[in-house]
């Protein structure tokens, strides 16, 4: 579990740093996120091996669920690290270009994602108890913010076509954060499985920005 908490901490830092690098146009901070990804990948492989070794033994009940849940969680954590790298690469691409009005919404998406991940990991580690309903609700909030970034950005492209490349890069950053939210939701599903033995799929994959369909989610 210690390595899982470590990789979760690194991933959480990467989410925060990648978006801060974008907001501040800080290419050095973006570089740190990109470099950190190698450590995340290494830890993921170490945990893979630990889980495989554990599964070779005779596990049952919650002990078995911890190993299986952790094995799936670290895949999501690695993907979150990769998406944070994507945001950092956007920073490198737009470092010398004007800040867009959508930057504040992107910062808000990252802030929500950080809270979601912390909630999941605190419950996984036993630091807190309760349920993860707020994680699923917050993921919908991220989706709505992504929709706002997407449609507002289209409007900016229409009115300022000379900035279209820069704006498209920011849409890519927002899309990466939307996917981060989806992966954190999947982590929440694994944590619930460990605690209850029931595996429920709660995430709603977002391939296009939200329209009317979010109103019927339960």
Key terms for this structure?
mainly alpha, disordered C terminus, 218 residues
Task: Label the overall shape.
Answer: elongated
In helices, the fraction of residues equals over 70%
Please write the string of helix (H) and strand (E) elements: HHHHHH
Strand content: under 5%
What is the tally of beta strands? Answer: 0
Q: Assign the structural class, choosing from mainly alpha, mainly beta, alpha/beta, alpha+beta, or little secondary structure.
A: mainly alpha
Rg (CA only):
18 Å
Number of helices: 6
Biggest beta-sheet profile:
none
Low-confidence stretches: 212-218
Q: Whole-Å distance between the termini?
A: 32 Å
What is the average of the pLDDT values? Answer: 88
What is this entry, summarized?
The protein is mainly α and 218 residues long. 78% of the residues lie in helices and 0% in strands. The chain is elongated.
Describe this entry's structure for a reader.
With 218 residues, the protein is an all-alpha fold. It has helices at 2-24, 27-55, 61-94, 103-125, 133-159, 164-196. The two termini are 32 Å apart. Mean pLDDT is 88; it is low at 212-218.
Topology summary:
Blueprint: H1 2-24, H2 27-55, H3 61-94, H4 103-125, H5 133-159, H6 164-196
Helix pairs in contact: 1-2, 1-3, 1-4, 2-3, 3-6, 4-5, 4-6, 5-6
